[in-house]
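Researcher: I'd like a structural prediction for the single chain below. Treat it as a standalone chain; there are no partners to consider.
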Amino acid sequence: MQDLTPNFSSLSKIDASVDQIDWSIRLFLDHQAFVPAITLAGAAEEIVGAVLGEQSIFALVKKKLSADLDLPEKIISQAHMNKTRNWLKHWKEMQDEETIYVDLEGEAIQYIVRALANLILHDRSLPSEGPRFFEWLAANRK
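Model: Treating it as a single chain, here is the predicted structure.
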């Protein structure tokens, strides 16, 4: 008789985030697929950032930019730091523009760097694609 029990695996949020970061880097470097790189890196950044709380890169940068630019943290986070990711993830009728103009490569880099920085802050680790991304960054974005 065939076992009909599904094959379940154990998966932690951090392990899922590491996989998301690796795939975001592969999509970015190997396929220039910036949109899925943004959404995957953004998801990973958010998950690890939740563990770090106020010590996450997002929270630290948001606080610094808010103080430097004398703007509320909500404006910094929604109109600048997370605008592209949120636009890609959600559709708020009557609020969202149907089209935005954005530097997708630059945005993808930002989200990947933020996700990698959070992971480093969390447990001092890098995903397998991390060194390759940093090599590309050093060679292409000095």
